[in-house]
């Protein structure tokens, strides 16, 4: 190789916001510019909640006319009066089966995920490691963990302070397994 042809040329240029032309200023950058926009008429609730569109919750108190699975009971608040058949995530779970069930509590995965005390104990260890010990009775802890398990099973990871309404039938099954004299019910985040 010829020594004259083997020269290495390096160059370095620095840039700063001061050298940017007026039309390319950092203030002109807009976040989420390429993210899909929420279409009119859709909301997060459409994905997770009712398949029936807008539902008037008040007539649900004191009856189970709203239940389509046959396993719901009247709940203390209208917000808790929702059937698994109205929750897309629960119906999707039931439709995964070769022979879909009418109620999420009849799904072969419901008992091991939400009612098995050993699974709940293990799930609680994960919760405790991440968030710390909760000072409640074993029944309350199992019930709380079962609700979390149901949400995780149906919705996956929700994130901090994100809550979903659980079906009355599943809530009743969990409460019947892990009983208490007093229940809190659904609380908004």
TrEMBL record:
<dbReference type="InterPro" id="IPR046815">
    <property type="entry name" value="P2RX7_C"/>
</dbReference>
<feature type="compositionally biased region" description="Low complexity">
    <location>
        <begin position="1"/>
        <end position="18"/>
    </location>
</feature>
<dbReference type="Pfam" id="PF20478">
    <property type="entry name" value="P2RX7_C"/>
</dbReference>
<feature type="domain" description="P2X purinoreceptor 7 intracellular">
    <location>
        <begin position="43"/>
        <end position="186"/>
    </location>
</feature>
<feature type="region of interest" description="Disordered">
    <location>
        <begin position="1"/>
        <end position="57"/>
    </location>
</feature>
<protein>
    <recommendedName>
        <fullName>P2X purinoreceptor 7 intracellular domain-containing protein</fullName>
    </recommendedName>
</protein>
């Amino acid at each position: 190789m010829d020594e004259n042809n083997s020269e290495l040329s390096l160059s370095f240029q620095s840039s700063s916001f001061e050298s940017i032309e007026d039309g390319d200023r950092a203030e002109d950058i807009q976040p989420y510019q390429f993210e899909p926009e929420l279409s009119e008429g859709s909301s997060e609730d459409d994905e997770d909640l009712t398949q029936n569109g807008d539902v008037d919750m008040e007539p649900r108190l004191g009856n189970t006319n709203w239940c389509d699975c046959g396993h719901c009971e009247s709940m203390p608040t209208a917000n808790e009066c929702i059937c698994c058949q109205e929750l897309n995530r629960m119906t999707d779970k039931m439709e995964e089966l070769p022979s879909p069930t009418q109620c999420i509590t009849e799904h072969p995965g419901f008992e091991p995920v939400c009612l098995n005390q050993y699974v709940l104990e293990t799930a609680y260890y994960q919760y405790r490691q991440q968030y710390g010990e909760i000072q409640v009775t074993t029944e309350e802890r199992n019930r709380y963990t079962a609700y979390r398990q149901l949400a995780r099973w149906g919705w996956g990871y929700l994130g901090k302070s994100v809550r979903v309404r659980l079906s009355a039938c599943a809530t009743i099954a969990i409460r019947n397994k892990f009983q208490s004299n007093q229940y809190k019910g659904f609380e908004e985040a």
